[in-house]
Amino acid sequence: GGVGQKETRSLWGGRSVSQEIYGSIERFNLRTQEWSVVTSSTNNNNNNNNNNNCPPARDGHSAVVYGDCMYIYGGSNDVEVFDDIWRFSFATSSWTRLPISLIGDPLPPKHLQRRLHTACMVGSIMYVVGGYQGQNCFNDVLKCNVITGSLEVVPCGEEGPRRGYGHSATLLKNNNDANNNKIVVFGGYGDGTGYRSNLYLFSTKTNSWTQVMRAPLPSSSSSLPSLEDNDVLVSPPTDDNMAPQQQLLEAWPEYRRRHTAVMIYNDNDNKNNNNGTMIILGGVGHQYFNDVWKFVLRDDAGDDDDDDSLLNSDGLLRHDMARLLDNASEYHADASIITRAETGVAVGGEGGGGGEKKEEEVIYVHKAILSARCEHFKYLFNSSMKEAQDGVVSLDDIPSSVVHALLRYLYTGQDDVVLPDVAADLLCLSDRFMLPRLKRVCEGVLIEGIDHNNAASLLMIADTYSCPKLKKEAIEYCAKNHRQVLSQDGFKSLPPHILLEVMSAVSKSS
Q: What span, in angstroms and rounded, lies between the C-alpha atoms of 428 and 485?
């Protein structure tokens, strides 16, 4: 997390490419262009800090500034996800943990634990948006008064973003009403939708959400070469009771998470209530991005609210293809796929069977579309095999959720079907069905989610299905966290040649 103060920028925490977790504060002086260490709160790789006077080292936290203090919320290390709030005083170079007083009904256990969330400061209130707890994603807003320590949970209504993490959040100030600011949330990842590029406004006055733009689906040709001539213009409502004005432009960022966003204001333009420019930089989706986007938020855009106008031609086509799949039986389907999934069984992972069988599911499809998009289905439907004659394909060894994800990818080309809970199975299936692009996307998602519980099984998948990037990252993780990984049962059952590679990496890192 990092914050800015006049001529300096201060960073605390984070994780290196070698998986070291940092717990020191480092400051960059914009005038002298020099870095300096302010204070060291804990050793870089200390996950179990017993010093009650400073926060344990972590990453995935948020940082905001209020007065001469920096406030840290949440984050995680290799052991736990945090729900604490710490204050660092730049005047005294000291840490203080804030006591929290919850307003409202008791919360479920671990509900306040967050990582990869965002935070914005409005007066003395820190607004924490979304995040990931390790098992659950969130879309609520935590309002914490850093003076009194009171914390209020604001649930997300149907009009708000879905549960997720890795989004950005910036503050759009209201020049005429300090109580009516907007928090602008863009992109992210999570809860059934994968990567996102939606844009939402949260009103600090009404505690309500407005989706000011429904983004088109990702397009490989939608990056901007510069900032000067390519504005993405969206228009927030000028009154909280008004429906949002919306305008679609051909250019729109691809789905992404873990990007950076900042809000820039024009000091000479104070006559408008809400007026700012949000800059989006980089992130990761189906690939790593280094592009820059400029969103101009102002109240003078058009008011076209026709549904089709909210999607460009590419997005509308993908939307129609998804509808074709979802209603295939009504649109001349000429084949079907039968799947019977078992819980807890991975297609290419270790898996042990033993799951309770689900009901048989029939998914109706179109031979022409599957044949055009996948060589496996092309050969199958043009052969003399029984599947070609009957039009019935049995995939009862594959979880139904994975089959649905595969079909949605084939029909729409969307990368956001690759969610963490199906990525391993979908990678194995993409290798089996000769879909190299989908396989690369799955590999990237699995790399993002490596931990000590799954490192061994991901190593096995990477070795079996020739995924060099995943194998390299998994081996590096095992080497860096060998004490936790080596104690797992799955690690002990790895083939000898993989164990030798891991041991070699461990010895090199020691």
A: 23
Burial call 458-482: b when 16+ CB within 10 Å, e when fewer: bbbbbbebebeebbebbbbbbbbbb
User: What own/partner pairs with CB < 8 Å and gap ≥ 24 does 381-384 have?
Assistant: 381/335
- CA 339-340-345 angle, to 5 degrees, is 115
- Convert the pLDDT of each residue in 78-113 to its tens digit: 899 999 999 999 888 899 999 999 998 888 889 999
Contact present, 164 and 191 (Cβ < 8 Å): yes
Which strands, in side-by-side order, build the sheet including 2-5?
Answer: 2-5, 8-12, 24-29, 34-40
Q: Is the pLDDT of residue 240 over 60?
A: no
Count of other CB atoms within 10 angstroms of residue 489: 8
DSSP 3-state of 459: helix
DSSP string, 256-294: BBS-EEEEE--TT--SSSB-EEEEEEEEESSSEEEEEEE
Is 120:64 a contact under the CB 8 Å cutoff? yes
Which amino acid type is present at position 139?
Answer: N
pLDDT reading at 353 higher than 80: no
423 Cβ neighbours under 8 A, 6+ residues apart:
442, 445, 446, 449
Q: What is the pTM of this model?
A: 0.58
d(CA 128, CA 75): 12
Contact call for residues 138 and 130 (beta carbons, < 8 A): yes
User: Pairing mode, if any, of strands 101-103 and 150-154?
Assistant: parallel
d(Cα 480, Cα 418) in Å, to the nearest integer? Answer: 27
Q: What is the pLDDT of residue 303?
A: 37
**Edge-to-edge strands of the sheet including 182-190?**
168-172, 182-190, 194-203, 208-213
422-479 confidence digits (pLDDT tens)? 999 999 999 999 999 999 989 988 988 888 888 889 999 999 999 999 999 988 888 8
Q: What is the pairing mode between strands 335-339 and 24-29? A: unpaired
Contacts of 371 (CB under 8 A, 6+ apart): 377, 378, 381, 382
Q: Which residue has the tokens 């905001």?
A: 64
